[in-house]
Amino acid sequence: MSEKTNVIALQNLELKLGYAFEDIKLLEQALTHRSFGPIHNERLEYLGDSILGMVIAKDLYDRFPKCKEGDLTRMRSTLVRETMLAQIAREFELGNVLRLGPGELKTGGFRRDSLIADAVESIIGAMFIDSHESFELVRQNILRWFKTRLETIKPDVDQKDHKSTLQEYLQSAHLPLPEYKVESIEGTDNEQIFVVSANVKGYEKQIGRGSSRRRAEQVAAGLVLELIDKRKKYK
Fold first, then answer.
1. Lowest CB count within 10 Å: 5, 13, 28, 84, which one?
2. Where, in this chain's numbering, is Mg(2+) bound (predicted)?
3. pLDDT by position in tens, the chain (length 235)
């Protein structure tokens, strides 16, 4: 990408973000994966993650005054989880402007949820620094990005992840807890795919795949829950 093209791409991104950077190098750093070079976005991601969690937590606290802590926590987790941030990243088309090393480019890192979700958090950290630590300005931007999601999320809808839901069901039924096992790790070092089995007494072993062990376990647990639901229907 030429310098002129890069400037135009960053300006277009600023329009989508609703924020114009005083120091454009901060935005460039927020879009730089560690595979690209020694100056990357991991520290900005750390900062942005904390700010995002605080902004969403406070909005939910104000929006649902009668909600218990557990419901608020589950809703916050739903809103700030990787898959949700990756959706927002795709709305901003961050994959087109990420700066990745040759290995990540070759393996399609610009499409990977983890990388583009991290970039969203990095941009939040970069905005905070660039705005001279104006928490209010950054808060307003975040709430605009999440507006429709905050308006549609509900405390009475189950926000639990598959592993938690499966564990609670098995405990309530007085059944043994599931056993998760890494069956194999496929792919290259830059793009590993974990293959994990979920073993639940009385059900066929289910296999989940994901870019991390945790994600693969969630997929496998979800497949077990589907088997449980099917069995309930035919009882």
1. 5
2. 45, 118, 121
3. 545 558 889 999 999 999 999 999 999 999 999 999 999 999 999 999 999 999 999 999 999 999 988 889 888 988 998 888 988 999 999 999 999 998 888 888 778 888 899 999 999 999 999 999 999 999 999 999 999 999 988 886 555 577 888 888 888 888 899 999 999 998 876 678 889 999 999 999 999 888 788 888 988 988 898 888 777 655 5
- Domain co-membership, 94 together with 206: no
Residue 169 and residue 177 in contact, taking contact as beta carbons nearer than 8 Å: no
CATH number at residue 185: 3.30.160.20
Could you list the active site residues?
49, 121
The Cα 168–Cα 42 span in angstroms is 35
Are residue 7 and residue 61 in the same domain, yes or no? Answer: yes
The alpha carbon torsion through 20, 26, 27, 29 (nearest 10 deg) reads 180
Q: 130: annotated binding-site residue?
A: no
71 is an annotated ligand-binding site residue: no
